[in-house]
């Protein structure tokens, strides 16, 4: 009886081993390559298709290798880059990619870890080649987005040989090495001060021009007003000589007698006749 139970248990175990080596599940997030004695037979659920589910293989003859179907990424260790102006930068970058040809990826790298190592080497080379051809200020600010796009295109062209598509490359940080930061920042400050001085000088020139135009217009307007005023006075003087005498006397009073002036002579002369009588009658 005991021997029978041992045989049953052994048979159940063998059946379990056969079943576990026969059936396998391909998740939605994975793509699988079925190998037979190390040779590629078929690819299941590769990128661009939807074939997840339960599959069968020949036990002990065939095996399955899985690769990620999702977008994955890695961060490259900080790299010391020398720009075209011979300034040194510490660059921190990362890349995102996906395996679009798992069969080629297996042939070229076998494992995801090894494939990522090769991608890191490709990214490092693209960084040095692209960033080494431009100035550090272009890397830090003025052309950063353009340079990242160029690096991604170059990396993608090389990564296609691995069965990989590069989705994006980003430069997270690009900092000058500490010993040259102050020197470069001082140079940038000097340049900004020069630009600011030019802007201020241009503003002063515009100010002088605008004031000159305004003064010219003001003088012209004032001249036209004075001419019109004289025209009106002359017209009035011609119609009423008495008004002309009165107006000229008022002007003379205004000029000759400042505010607060105390009179030390009696105002009975001809000069003050309009102060004695509104009609300007001669003194009596």
- Which structural class matches the secondary elements? alpha+beta
Shape: rod-shaped
Distance between the termini: 167 Å
Cα-based radius of gyration, to the nearest Å: 48 Å
Average pLDDT, all residues = 81
The helix content, as a percent range, equals 40-55%
Instruction: Please name the CATH topology of the largest domain.
Output: Tetrahydropterin Synthase, Chain A
List the domain count as a whole number. 3
User: What portion of the residues fall into strands of 2 or more residues?
Assistant: 15-25%
Task: Give the CATH level 1 class of the largest domain.
Answer: Alpha Beta
Task: Explain how this protein is built.
There is one protein chain. With 284 residues, this protein is of the alpha+beta class. It has three domains: 19-68, no CATH class; 72-182, Band 7 domain (Tetrahydropterin Synthase, Chain A), CATH 3.30.479.30; 239-259 and 267-284, no CATH class. Helix content is 54%, strand content 23%. The chain is built from eight helices and eight strands. The strands form three sheets. A three-stranded antiparallel β-sheet has the order 3-2-5, with no helix packed on it. A hairpin with a 2-residue loop joins strand 2 and strand 3 (39-44). Helix 2 (102-109) crosses helix 3, helix 3 (112-131) crosses helix 5 (144-159) and helix 6 (178-239) crosses helix 7. It is rod-shaped and about 160 Å long. The relative contact order is 0.07.
């Amino acid at each position: 009886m005991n021997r029978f139970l041992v045989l049953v248990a052994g048979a159940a175990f063998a059946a379990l081993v056969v079943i576990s080596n026969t059936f396998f599940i391909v998740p939605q997030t994975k793509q699988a390559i079925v190998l037979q004695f190390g040779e590629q037979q078929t690819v299941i659920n590769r990128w661009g298709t939807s074939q997840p589910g339960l599959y069968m293989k020949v036990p002990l003859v065939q095996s399955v290798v899985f690769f990620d179907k999702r977008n994955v990424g890695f961060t490259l260790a900080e790299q010391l880059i020398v720009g075209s102006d011979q300034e040194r930068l510490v660059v921190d970058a990362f890349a995102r990619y996906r395996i679009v040809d798992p069969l080629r990826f297996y042939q070229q790298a076998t494992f995801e870890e090894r494939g990522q190592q090769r991608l890191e080497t490709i990214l490092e080379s693209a960084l040095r080649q692209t960033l080494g051809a431009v100035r550090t200020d272009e890397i830090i600010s003025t052309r950063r987005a353009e340079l990242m796009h160029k690096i991604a295109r170059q990396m993608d062209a090389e990564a296609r040989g691995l069965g990989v598509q590069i989705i994006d490359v980003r430069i997270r940080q690009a900092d000058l090495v500490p010993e040259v930061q102050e020197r470069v920042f001082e140079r940038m400050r000097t340049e900004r001060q020069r630009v600011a001085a030019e802007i201020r000088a241009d503003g002063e020139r515009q100010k002088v021009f605008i004031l000159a135009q305004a003064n010219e217009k003001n003088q012209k307007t004032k001249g036209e007003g004075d001419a019109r005023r004289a025209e009106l006075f002359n017209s009035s003087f011609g119609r009423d000589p008495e008004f002309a005498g009165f107006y000229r006397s008022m002007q003379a009073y205004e000029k000759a007698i400042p505010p607060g002036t105390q009179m030390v002579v009696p105002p009975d002369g001809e000069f003050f006749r309009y102060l004695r009588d509104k009609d300007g009658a001669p003194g009596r």
